[in-house]
Each structure stands twice: as C-alpha cells, then as structure tokens.
Write a structure and sequence with these properties.
1 helix
Length: 88
C-alpha cells in the first residue's frame, strides 16, 4: 500500500486535503469539535457531509476488536450497507 501524503491539520481553516483511492477526485475533511454533536466534516465539491466525531473512536475500537481488518463497504446511497462493514 502506498504512503498517503496528507496536507492540512484537520481544522476548518486548514482542513486535511485528501484524494480518493483512484486519485481522480479531491476532498477535504476537518474536525468540528464545537458542533452539536461534534462532527467530522467532509466536503466533496459542493456537497458537505457530517459524521458524528465519535466515529473515529468507534472505528478504532472496531478495528482493534476485529484484528485491524474490516471491509470498508461500497453500497451506493440508496442501498443497504453489508453487515460487518465500516459503512454499516
């Protein structure tokens, strides 16, 4: 797996600058700890997605419980995510 070069520090003013695995699209993410609830904010083009910030600790616990490997999942927005995936 190639190393990931991440720019930014994860704040609203200096979000992480990321790209998709294919390298065909870029997006930004930052931690909004003052939000209610605190959120991980993802901006892709003009679309803004907010996830509860606790998702990072939840994912860490899930990975630890399952031996550091969990399928990501790839359902589209209209489909149900497969059980046991990060997406679910």
């Amino acid at each position: 797996m190639a190393a990931v070069d991440v720019q930014g520090i994860g704040t609203k003013d200096q979000p992480w600058q990321l790209e998709t695995a294919s390298g065909k699209a870029e997006y930004q993410m930052y931690r909004d700890e003052a939000g209610d609830p605190p959120a991980l904010v993802c901006t892709v083009g003009t679309t803004v997605l907010r996830y509860q910030l606790r998702c990072l600790e939840d994912l860490r616990a899930m990975l630890k419980e399952r031996g550091d490997w969990v399928e990501l999942g790839s359902a589209d927005e209209q489909a149900t995510a497969a059980d046991g995936t990060v997406e679910a």
